[in-house]
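Re: export button greyed out
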Amino acid sequence: MTPVAGILARISAIFIKELVQMRRDRLTFGMMFAIPVMQLVLFGFAINNDPKDLPAAVHVEEQTPIVRTLLRALETSGYYKLVLETPDPRESSRLLASGDVAFVISIPAGFTERLIRGDRPQLLIEADASDPAAASNAIARADAIFNRALRHDLKGSLAYLAAAPSPFELVIHPRYNPEAITQYNIVPGLLGVILTMTLVMITSMAMTREAERGTIENLLAMPAKPIEVMIGKITPYVGVGAVQTTVVLIAAHYIFDVPFAGPLWLLLLGVTIFVLANLALGFTFSTIAKSQMQAMQLTFFFFLPSLLLSGFMFPFRGMPGWAQMIGEALPLTHFLRIVRGVMLKGAGFSDVQHEMLALVIFTALAVGLAMLRYKRTLD
Amino acid sequence: MTELAAPELAIPDLAINVRGLVKRFGDKTAVDGVDIQMPRGEVWGFLGPNGSGKTTTIRMICGLLQASEGEGECLGYDIARDTDQIKLSTGYMTQKFSFWSDLTIRENIEFVARLYQMPERRKKVDETLEKLDLTHRQHQLAGALSGGWKQRMALAAVTMHEPQLLLLDEPTAGVDPQARRDFWDEIHQFAAQGMTVLVSTHYMDEAERCDRIVYLANGKLLTRGRVSDIIAASGLFTFRGEGDGVRRLAEDLRNENGVDQAAYFGAALHISGTDRALLQSAIDKERHKNVHWKEVPPNLEDAFIALMTRAGADDRHHA
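Workaround output, generated via the alternate export path:
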């Protein structure tokens, strides 16, 4: 046998062995196809840096043909979706604080009259700038949208107004993060991302490590019930989560100067539920995965949509409906609303109670699934 | 938990009482209709080739596997329903070392003591380490222990809660002869304290130290009873050949009429069969080969090989 033939023979022996082992590990095999497909779908269809159809509330104190024209122009521009029209400014402000709308457009009484007089009345757009990227395109285009719309109406006797630079003064009021500092949005969100990644990954090894090392047989032979094993195994990582939270919050305050508008206890309550949700999910993964390698893959498979569809990296409102639905099922989405709401907007309990409830439901489902999947025997 | 009282009242004199246990994995039947009635206080040996279903049977008895068919009680508790109680009152030592190799010896022992909620835990752990002669090494990682010490630590850990029944799955596999002997002395000490012990093994000398043995092959119970009874029931005659030419004889003799088996024991060759005259004539043919023959009582291994041959082909599956 020539040396080359020997090399080829040994390479092919190892090649064939790898192929056989690859085929045995179904989950890994599946992940190799599922992850590229998921990335294609998420990056290709779900993510949109030019978010359209952003929900907006209109606080309007008069109804005239010109006001109708302006509002219709906003809707047809594709950037704004008017979900509420109200004469009550408190109602529209509440929606902005809770995050249900991204903008509030205010048209005061007497707007039309002053416009016709040539007084250049003010038109106010308040934007939720806690996520600066989400709102910027819609804001940047607002002036042009209004002017183009008015050009059709300002004809005949009103043609003199069209000649002026702009018959009204558009006032943009970026709320919650007036300087549009990206860190204000990213750093609190990063807390959620860090907790998701580390805690799900660590606990996803919890049972698979016992299974891989063979210690599961001993553990099962001794008197410990599944829920006792689960609680005992995830509790240490609540401490890990607490340390991580402390570090991120200290950095947010002293290094990034992120404001902290809301009550600390509310944030800590949210963090606690969120940490438990992630730990429960990780433990569930560990009852599904057959090896630590598979546990890592499951974690990655969960982490990727969490990062992309939660509103952390890309504006949540900019995603198509199906992507928002997936996003609603992810704990990070709800946690981001809590942490940004409390830190940047000064949200109170009533503003974030639905997000808290979503996290509690997620945790309960994960625990339930883990208990169903937990094997009490070696079968 | 209300039905707890019932088994307490009628104290069963059988530690293990299982009937028609069957375990299937997919389309493979690992255990096929095994009955065991084992009285309390005895030491039983569980024998059989690899893949004969010993481990699977033990796991079904202590609630680690669910039987596909059959029923039974372990210490009076139903093996299908009362696995929690069974776990509390049995000690199961796994075939492969399954304590935590990244915990120290002491941490492992403490973990077990905590799980069983032992009173005076610290004292109990100290005593256990002392008895094991591991006090000076208690802070070493369990993974650093040699095979024999690992087995001793495991035995100490599974007996700390003073179980009524001890299930040991090949506890002496890969352990040196001296450690094996020490290990067996400990087993007999536990038995003397009233523990019931079921121990699986491949070693015939260990089997002979048991009150009774159960022999499993291909998932079926082949025989059970006292060592002497099993040998007698085999109806075997055995000749032992020694000498320079003996090394090449086994193949020839195996094909002779009346020779059921020919197997080497050290340097000697044992041939066995149920017809003494036929054995004798087979030997006579090989007289010229410079081998000295003499009749010996058959030993347990001879009896088992005969049993296996009669039970059918040796279609064992190696795990």
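The longest helix of chain B spans residues 177-192. The button fix ships in the next patch.
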